[in-house]
Structures are given as structure tokens and as C-alpha cells.
Amino acid sequence: MTLAKESSVTAQSAAAAARATVYGVPRQGPDRELKRAIEGYWKGRTDAAALHGTAAALRRDNWRRLAEAGVHEVPTGDFSYYDHVLDTAVMVGAVPARHRAAVAADPLDGYFAMARGTQDVAPLEMTKWFDTNYHYLVPELGPDTVFSADSTTQVAQLKEALALGHTARPVLVGPVTFLLLAKPAPGVADDFQPLTLLDRLLPVYAEVLADLRAAGARWVQLDEPALVADRTPAELNATARAYRQLGALTDRPQLLVASYFDRLGEALPVLAKSPVEGLALDFTGPAAANLPELAAAGGLPGKRLVAGVVDGRNVWINDLGASLSTLGTLLGLADRVDVAASCSLLHVPLDAAAERDIDPQLARWLAFAVQKTEEIVTLARGLSEGTGAITARLAANRADLASRANSPLAHDPAVRARTAAVTEADARRSAAYPERAAAQHDRLGLPLLPVTTIGSFPQTGELRTARADLRAGRIDETAYEGRIATEIHEVIGFQERAGLDVLVHGEPERNDMVQYFAEQLTGALTTRHGWVQSYGTRYVRPPILAGDLSRPEPMTVRWTRYAQSLTERPVKGMLTGPVTMLAWSFVRDDQPQAETARQMALALRDEVQDLEAAGSSVIQVDEPALRETLPLRAAEREEYLAWATEAFRLTTSGVRPDTQIHTHMCYAEFGDILRAIDELDADVISLEAARSHMRVADELGAAGYPREVGPGVYDIHSPRVPDVAEAAALLRKGLSAIPAERLWVNPDCGLKTRGWTEVRAALENLVAAAREVREGL
Ligand code: MET
Questions:
Q1: What are phi and psi of 30, to 5 degrees?
Q2: Beta-carbon neighbour count of residue 174 at 10 Å?
């Protein structure tokens, strides 16, 4: 292990001590107080004053926690009632016309209306924040958009922090990223490019910057993560123009432009040459390439560099020695170097110390936001005062890392031997698709346009109560299982009566499609308090894939077999796929993701084979996350798709030719993974299509996709029930792209969030539509 060069460390302390900072912290509070306060406000249980009071107290506690840990410069403006991109839209006056009256009447209610919609007005669209599991609200812009500055919230939060005695740095979404994340407003041409509004937006940012300076900001951080994706020369020119103009302002704080989630690449020289005073760069994972690229570009003479050396997106302890080595190299490349996490700590849970049930051996390897803050402070101290000042801490860190490297909890020789022995043939079905299709046709005897669902049926209040009762000890395991069995009985009965062709058991026993499996896998952990914001007041607890993965016993066979015992029709086995299991978990960082994916795939392969042996003739392996984990840079995609598709095939290829493998993905945009979808070699794929008028069917048809497809004809994201005519029209549209022999009829996604009344009506209509269209064939 190399440590920071003592000579460079002395140089830094002579100039200025390295500062520890972060770009943002988890918003929810130790007990998700924010969620409760906001939802209480929505339900009318608390008033706005009480909500503001809770929020201010949480911010105060967050800053105090940071300051007490030794963070020198705390962020402001990272806090949000819903989403920071929505906050930015409000800050620049980009309120859609349909929401203006509500915002004018009451800014807080108007804000929530933009986020969630009302009875009469649709919300902004929501989508994933880069390749994280956080969702932001998509700004809607058009040629007529008139921006206007409203710095109230940013100024108020800055003043709060300053009044509490903190050195504070407001954090804003930068103008280029804001525009690149926006989409054309309804009614505006699809090809409208929001970036063309840059010259109108910059004066608004100038005004906000002046207001923040007047309120006491010495530095302001502008987040530009959009610059880590592949950008066109025009986009890079716009970036150069933006920062030339903002840099030239006289009435402004010093500017720190932050990037994260990958390397800056072509945008690095653009920002390095701009007249901003500082850059924040990610030096973790693939973004580690920022280091040589920065050196090659001649560094950042005269500028401040904030070095994101602590991974802000995973839950593992930092290798402090390695980080100090990186920091030591960086010292020669900038005027001063400060230390941070790679991105906002929004993406990790708050405090690993709250996890009392985790094996203490394993707990040593975990770092949530609180622990990462301590690592950042330690590194800043080591950089300023020399490694001698943190000797004991470095030794403890080495011991923790060594305990992980050698731990039998993380290393299972049997699992390793098995992944090492995987051959190309293991990830290939034993027969080609045409032969399989014929065998499956004979075995299943399905009609043309078979009707099925995606897996889950409504997760009713009774089911959730039963689970809570079981956890609280109010009912025992037997009583709980009785309730699950009753539910499965009803779900099967309904599907038979409604006339569906391939049935499901409805997933009533699953708390969550990832957690349910993680709880049963060796090598995976689940947390009690490890909440991470997904969107708005929705928080999830991603499992932690800590060690080599294996499946001690079957996970789904019992309920699937029970469901099958109730009907003559085929019941689909239902599993979450390996790529999605990884995407929605915190994945170990001490081996390539491809290796973890392979272990997961083999564990799931055993389950697939056990289902087959128990009589399942149809097995679905869901991969809704295949596309969202696609790397931000095109150059990294091929490698990802290679291991991801291999993991899916490894999971599903051990079955007989006459066992039908389904997969499901719920999004309509996947032009960029068409080839990968083909590589999965699934017999049947179901996709989201209802909202986009079966566009996926057209795309797959045009691409010559050779296997069976179920483009969703029922949009389950809305309480609307499609009538027979509407579903039939969509099916006919599907038939224009996919021949009847290969077209399935199904909803867009699982039904767990819907109510029984809608589900009953919608599925009956789907069956009727399928019969009507079949008759016309
Ligand atoms: N089988 C799962 C369900 O129906 C698939 C969900 S994909 C987000 O709920």
C-alpha cells in the first residue's frame, strides 16, 4: 500500500489546510421524520408551519452532525421537500403553465402539485437520476419559456446555516445539467432542445448567485453531472459559454463546478479552462480515470480541486491508504485540494451504527453517510497534517479491510469453484428457439394471443397488516401462511373464472421483489433502518450483497407448487433476475460486478431448475433494471451488456426445451438495448407499451425480433381501466408488427399497486379483447 508523500503533504499545509466537505446528506432524518411530516401535511394532519419546523430542525441536525464530525464546509440547498431538480425548476421560474395558478395561490401546495399532480392536473414526469435509483422530476421547457429568478429557498437555507455558525456552501443544479435533463413541454415539438434556452437561463443564475453572495456565500457549488455522459461538441461549446459568462460576472461568489458518477472526459479541459475557481471531481470506480486525465490536461493551476475519493454510492468502508495516495498525487495538480465523497450522500443510508442485527464482523466493513463523513474528515486531516496524525486510524482501517479480504463471510470456496467452472455452454439453451417454440407449443397447448399477467396481484391492506402482525408477533407463522394460502386461492380462482391462459400465484408472500430473495440468499444482508430516498417520500432499503452468494434452499417452489395444485392451467414461476437483484442492492466493491452477477445467476439457476422439477412449465425471470444500469458512457456499455445478458442466460438456460422462459421489463424506451434483449434468448418478453401506443412492438418487429412478445395493453401506472375496444385496438396495432403466433396479451407491469376493483375489470376486458381479436384472425 502506498501512502501520501510526506513532502507533498507539507506543501498543502503551508498553503492551506485541506477542508472536508460533502455535497449533500440524506434528507429523511434518523427515523424518516421528514416522510412522516410531509405525508401528514398531505393528509391535512399537520399544517405548513409544523412541516417547515420539522424540516428546519432536520437541517439543523444534519449540519450539526457534519460540523461535529469535523466537516469544514457544510452544504445548503441540498435539502428538499421532494426533489432538488424540481426545486431548481422553481428557482428559475420554470413552472409549467398548468401549475401556475396553484403555485401563485400557495407556493407549497403548488410545489406538491407539480410533484404529484392533483385530481385535475398532471404532475411533471419522473425519471431516474443518471444511473442511480433516485428519481427526479423532469422540467418541461419550450421556446416560450420565460425564466425568472426566485432565490428565496436557497437564500433562506444559507442564512439558517450561517446563523448557526457554519461555513456553508450552497449547492445548486448547474444550468447545463438543468437544461440537459429537461424535456419539451406538452405541445412543444419533440425535437425541441432545451439547451437552446441557455442564454435566457444564465442571467437568472447570475441573479441567484448575486443574491447568495449578498446573503453571505463565499462559494457556491454548481452540479453538472450531465457532463460525465458522452456530450456533443455543441453541448461542450454551450458548457464553455455558460461558465465563461458566469465566470465573468463581478457580483458573484467563487464557483465550484461539481461532476460525479463518471469521468469528465471531453468536458474536463472545457471546465479547466473556464474562469471558475474550483472543480469537484469523482475519483472512484470508472471515474478514477479523472486522475490521469487531469494530469494529462496539466492539472488545475490556480484552482481549488475538491476530490471525491470516498464512494458516495456504496456502503463499503474506504481504503484510506489508497485514497491518501490519490490525494497525494492530486496535490501537485491544483492550487489546493479538499476532500469529499464522490457525490451527494443522498444515495446511501444514514448510519451503519443503527444496524444492530448485522454480524459485528461484517458491520466493520460498512460505511453509511455518518461513517463516510468521518472518513472524509480523516482523509482531510491526513492530507493537512501528514499521515502521522492519523496513524492509529489508518491501522484500524487496514485491519478492517484485511478482515474483509480474508473473511469466510465474504468468501465461499464452493461458490468460487462453481463460478470458475462456468462454460459458454452453461449460458446457452440446449435447443435453438424454433425447436423450443414447437416443443412449448405442444406442451402448453395455448390459444393464439394467450392472456397472462406480469406476476403480482394487489398487495392489499390485509396482506400488509398480516405481515406487520407476523413481525410484531401478533400472529404466528402458521396463521400468516394461512392468509397467504387463502390469497393465492383467490387469485387463482379469479384468473380461472376470468379466462386467463397462463396464471400466476400473485406474489402475496413478497414484501418486495428484491428484498424477498435477498432475505433467503447466503451472502446478502437486509437492513432495518437503511432507508434511501427513491423519490419524494418513498424510501427503499436496498439489500447489501456482502459475500459470495448461494441459495441454501428453494425460495419460491413451495407457493408456486401450491398455486399449481389448484389449477389445470399453467402457473408461471416468478423470479427476480440477477441484473435487477444487483441493480437494486448495494453490491460488494471488492470484486468485479460481473463476478457477483455470475454468483447471483447460479443461485437463481438452481431455483429455476427446482421450479422446473416441481412441474413449472413456464418460468418468468424479471429484469426491469437491465436498461437503467446501462453505463453513462457508451464505451462502457458493451462490457456491461455482455455480463448482464450472460447472467440472465446462465439463470435460465438449464431448463428443458419445452419449458418456456419469460422475462419482463417495464419501460418503453429501449432502442439502445434491442440487441441485448435479443441476447437474452428468452422465449417470451413482456414490455411496457400501453402509454406509447405499442411503439415497442413496432421497434421489435422492425428489428426482426424472432421470439414471442407481450407489449402491455393495460397501463397499470394509472387507475384507469381500459375498455374492451381500447385493448382490442392496441392488440390490432401490435399485430401489425408481431405475427399472431408470437403475440401475447398482458398488462404493462405487475398489479401490486392497484386495487382489486380495477384489476378485475381490466383483466376481464383484456380477455374479452383477446377473444374478439382472435376471432377476426
Ligand atoms: N413480477 C413482478 C411483479 O409483477 C415484476 C415487477 S417489474 C417492476 O410485480
A1: -60, -30
A2: 25
Stretch (H or E) spanning 126: strand 126-128
| DSSP letter assigned to residue 138 | P
Contact yes or no for 676/685 (Cβ under 8 A) = no
With b for 16 or more beta-carbon neighbours within 10 A and e for fewer, the 205-233 pattern comes to bbbbbbbbbebebebbbbbbbbbbbebee
Upper half-sphere CA count for residue 102 (Cβ side, 13 Å): 22
Residue with CA at minimum distance from ligand 1 atom 5: 750
Residue nearest to atom 6 of ligand 1 (CA): 750
Chain mean pLDDT for the chain? 95
Q: d(Cα 574, Cα 557) in Å, to the nearest integer?
A: 10
Q: In what order do the strands lie in the sheet with 572-576?
A: 572-576, 618-622, 660-665, 684-687, 708-711
**Is residue 75 within a helix (H) or strand (E), and if so which, with residue range?**
strand 74-76
Residue 61: predicted pLDDT: 98
Distance, CA of 250 to CA of 213 (rounded, Å): 11
**Are the beta carbons of 168 and 83 closer than 8 angstroms?**
no
Q: Look up residue 265 and give its three cell numbers.
A: 472526459
The pLDDT score that the predictor gives to residue 668 is 64
Given a cut of 70, the residues of the chain with pLDDT beneath it are 1-16, 668
Q: What is the pLDDT of residues 588-598, one digit of tens each?
A: 999 999 999 99
Q: Return the pLDDT at 705.
A: 95
Q: How far apart are CA 271 and CA 268, in angstroms?
A: 5
Percent of the chain's residues with pLDDT above 90: 93
Ligand 1 centroid distance, CA of 93 (Å): 38
3-class SS at 744? coil
Cα dihedral across residues 270, 273, 274, 280: positive or negative: positive
Instruction: Give residue 305's identity as a one-letter amino acid code.
Output: L
List residues with catalytic annotation.
717
> Do the strands 532-535 and 538-540 form a parallel or antiparallel pair, or are they unpaired?
antiparallel
Q: Residue 70: how many CB atoms within 10 A of its CB? A: 14
pLDDT value of residue 672:
80
* Ligand 1: lining residues by beta carbon, under 6 Å: 454-456, 513, 574, 622, 624, 664, 666, 749-750, 752
- Look at residue 38 and give its three-state secondary structure: helix
- pLDDT at position 670 is 75
Closest to 235 in 3D by CA, of 271, 282, 261, 207: 271
**For residues 605 and 401, what is the distance between their CA atoms, to the nearest angstrom?**
31
Residue 208 corresponds to which amino acid? V
Give the residue among 702, 643, 709 at the shortest CA–CA distance from 682. 709
Q: Give this complex's ipTM.
A: 0.99
458 C-alpha to ligand 1 centroid (Å): 11
Q: What CA–CA distance (Å, rounded) separates 171 from 3? A: 32
